[in-house]
Amino acid sequence: MEKSKKKVGAKKTTKVVEPVAKKKNNQLKATIMGIAMIVAALGLGVGTYAYYQSTITGTVSGSITAWSFLVNEKATDFTANLGDLKPGVSGQLTLNLSAEDSGLGVNAVVSFSGKTNWPANLKLYSDAGKTSEIIVGTTTISRTIAAGSADTVVIYYDWPLGTSAETGPTANQNASFVVTVVGTQVQQ
After folding, report:
1. Among 57, 87, 104, 139, which residue is least crowded by beta carbons within 10 Å?
2. Phi/psi at 29 (nearest 5 deg)?
3. Digit-coded pLDDT (tens) for 19-59
């Protein structure tokens, strides 16, 4: 019988392989522990410094500026009567524009529209010399009114007595047109 030869000093080693899930779990635990230690160190570091702190609360307020714009002392619709219209009559209509109770200036734009039963020869003008005719539907008149003040727009009308018969509405009808005044705050 022959004896087997053994190597002297040779050890047989076995390698233990950890499952991958367990290895990842250990890495996760190590990461969480590292983050926890950093947070704890920061917390201890902040707590070691003394500081003063004050919290101050204030109230901020402002008053809303007054806005007021009136036409012939009205804040909404107004009416005006030109009286009896007939050939040979002339006159004027005054629009009183007021920003007297306003804390803001007003840009006012007057426009004209909606002629009804208006005689062909009855003309409207924006000047006393009757050289700037108001074309209803086209002409506008603008004014800038300072805060706390007023201004006027005068509309002149003239129906000259002619040598030929008037064409237009028959007697005893009302003639009218619409005046629209838009007031807008002056930009400051």
Report:
1. 57
2. -65, -40
3. 556 666 778 888 888 887 777 766 665 555 678 889 999 99
Q: In what order do the strands lie in the sheet with 123-125?
A: 70-71, 90-98, 150-158, 123-125
CA dihedral sign of residues 135, 84, 156, 102: negative
Q: What's the angle, vertex CA 131, arms to CA 127 and CA 134, rounded to 5?
A: 70
Per-residue CA distances from 5 to 13, 114, 117, 129 (Å): 19, 128, 137, 141
3-state secondary structure of 158: strand
Query: In this structure, how many other beta carbons lie within 10 angstroms of the beta carbon of residue 104?
Result: 20
Tokens representing residue 163 in the block: 């040598």
Residue type, 114: G
- The closest of 124, 123, 134, 118 to 168, measured between CA atoms, is 118
* DSSP assignment string, 113-157: EEEES--TT-EEESSTTS-SB--TTT-EEEEEE-TT-EEEEEEEE
Which residue, 105, 118, 129, 117, is CA-closest to 185?
A: 105
Sign of CA pseudo-dihedral 89, 152, 130, 116: negative
